[in-house]
Design goal:
This protein has helices at residues 11-21, 41-51, 53-68, 81-92, 139-150, 177-194, and strands at residues 2-3, 74-79, 96-102, 122-128, 155-160. By secondary structure, the protein is of the alpha/beta class. The protein starts with a strand and ends with a helix.
Length: 196
């Protein structure tokens, strides 16, 4: 399951999901914005705030409940804002086998933490090394803490040269095809590993 970023379920998010599913993985892309799309971060946060955090959380949980009824190996993924749903659910719901955290990572300790990383959930964190949000607002530090706590057998952090935030979304100017190809290869490694 792939949770979209702050701009909504764009064609680029759908395209990224399609590239994963083309390799034999069933990918669900719930639309937490209920059809609304934003053209800027400001507009996206306005939609998020209008819908409300509690409502978005409920929609994410309902989407997971629906998908989990017929899934063998559940992996949760999120891009930027979508990481808040993917990571929280990966840390709190039973039956999750893996997590793919793109362009964001939440702390696993401290005041805002959901809690420790589960000992049975494999995780990859991906982000650009000069992204103002990922690299300069604490997410990369949270990712390093997660990897150190979970250990290299369970957790991996991958960084890519550049400053794009939503670099995996082919419908946006920040799209980076080279980095996205690498993200996809590594993501498929995790998906293949948890589905065997």
């Amino acid at each position: 399951m792939l949770f979209h970023h702050v701009l909504g379920l764009t064609d680029g998010v759908r395209g990224f999901a399609s590239r994963l599913s083309a390799q034999g993985h069933e990918v669900h892309t719930p639309d937490l914005y209920e059809g609304r799309l934003a053209t800027s971060f400001e507009e996206g946060f306005a939609i998020k705030n209008d819908l409300g955090a509690e409502h978005l959380q409920t929609l994410a949980e309902e989407a997971l409940d629906e998908a989990s009824t017929d899934a063998d190996s559940l992996v949760l993924a999120g891009i930027s804002l979508g990481v808040t749903h993917a990571q929280r659910l990966a840390q709190t719901r039973a039956g999750i086998h893996g997590a793919l955290l793109y362009a964001a990572c939440l702390p696993i300790s401290g005041e805002w933490a959901v809690g420790p990383w589960p000992e049975t959930v494999r995780v990859q964190v991906h982000g650009m090394d000069d992204d103002e949000f990922f690299a300069h607002e604490g997410d990369i530090d949270a990712a390093r803490e997660l990897v150190a706590a979970a250990g290299p057998e369970l957790a991996e952090l991958f960084t890519y040269p550049g400053d794009g935030h939503l670099f995996m979304d082919s419908s946006l100017p920040s799209y980076d095809s080279t980095a996205t190809d690498a993200v996809l290869r590594r993501s498929l490694d995790l998906l293949d590993a948890v589905s065997t």
